[in-house]
Amino acid sequence: MSAVTTLDSSAAWASATRMVAANRDLLVAIAGVFYVLPGLAGAVFVPSPAMTPEMSEAQMLAVMQDYYANSLPVLLILSLLPMAGMLTMLVAMLDTARPTVGQAIRHSVRALPTYFAAQLLIALGILPVSIALASVLALLLGDKLAVPIALGLLLYPIMRTMLVGPVVAGEGVRNPVTAIRESFERTRHNAGRILLFIGMAAFVFLVVYGLVMMFVGVVLVLTFKGEPQRLLGEGVAGVLLAVGYTYFVAMLAAIYRQLAGDAAGPAER
C-alpha cells in the first residue's frame, strides 16, 4: 500500500494563489466566458421568480414548478457552462503544456461528458443514502435534528469525491467510475482536512461577499431604479462569484497536486 500524503492547507493555499497569479490573464478570460456572461444571461432571460411573504406554500410551489417547467432547457445549459469552465480552468492550471484558452476549452469539452456522468453517479449514490439516513434519524431524534445531522454526515462522501474534476482534467481519465475511484484514493485520510480548508475559505468569502454586496446594494438603491438596479446588482454579484469560484478551482488543483506528490507544478512556476 502506498504511503498516505497528509494535506498541508497552508501550502495548498499558497500554491492556489500562485497558480491564480501565474495564469491570471487566462483565468480572467475563462471566468468571463463561463461564469460572468452565463450569469448575466440567466438574469436577463430566466430571472428568478418573484416571491412575496403573503404567498402560501402551495402558491410558492406552483410558482417554482411553473418556473422550472418553462426554463429547464435554458437552466440546464447554464448549469453545464460552469462545469465546462471549471474543467477549462483545471486544464489551464494542471496541463504542463501551458495551453491557450482555445486549447483548454477543447480539452474541457472532451472531458465534460465524463465529469457530468461522474457527478450524476455521485448524486445517485448519495441521494438514496441521505433519504434513508434522514428517515432513520427522524425516528430516533426527530425532524429538527435528523436533517442537519444527515447533511453533516453526507459531507464525508462529498469531500472524498471532491477531486473528480482534477482527475478528469489533469489525467485525461474518461471513465467516470475510474475518476471517482481515483478521487477516493487521493483523498484517503484527508476528508476532514479538505473540509476544514475549503470551509474556512468559503466562510471568509461569504463574509467579504456579504459586505461588498451590502455596500453595492446601498449605492445602487441611491443611484438606480427598477431593472437597471437589478441587472447591475446581478453583474457585481456575478463578478464576485466568478472570482470566488476561480480561487475554489485553484484550491482543488492545489489539493490534487499536493496529494499526488507534486507540490509545485509548472503552471505556478
Notes on the protein architecture:
The protein is built from nine helices and no strands. It is mostly helical and 269 residues long. It has a domain of 181 residues. The mean pLDDT is 87.
Question: Would you kindly provide a brief summary of this structure?
Answer:
Helices cover 81% and strands 0% of the residues. It has nine helices and no strands.
What labels describe this entry?
about 270 residues; mainly alpha; about 0% strand; globular
Please give the structural blueprint:
Layout (H helix, E strand, L loop, with lengths): L8 H14 L1 H22 L11 H38 L6 H41 L1 H18 L3 H8 L4 H11 L4 H33 L2 H34 L10
Helix pairs in contact: 1-9, 2-3, 2-9, 3-4, 3-6, 3-9, 4-5, 4-6, 4-7, 5-8, 6-7, 8-9
Helix-strand topology string: HHHHHHHHH
How much is the radius of gyration in Å? 20 Å
Percentage of residues in strands: under 5%
As an assembly, this protein is single chain
Q: How many alpha or pi helices?
A: 9
The percent range for helix content is over 70%
Largest sheet: none
- CA-CA gap between termini: 31 Å
The tally of beta strands, per DSSP, is: 0
SSE class = mainly alpha
Low-confidence segments, ≥5 residues, pLDDT <50? none
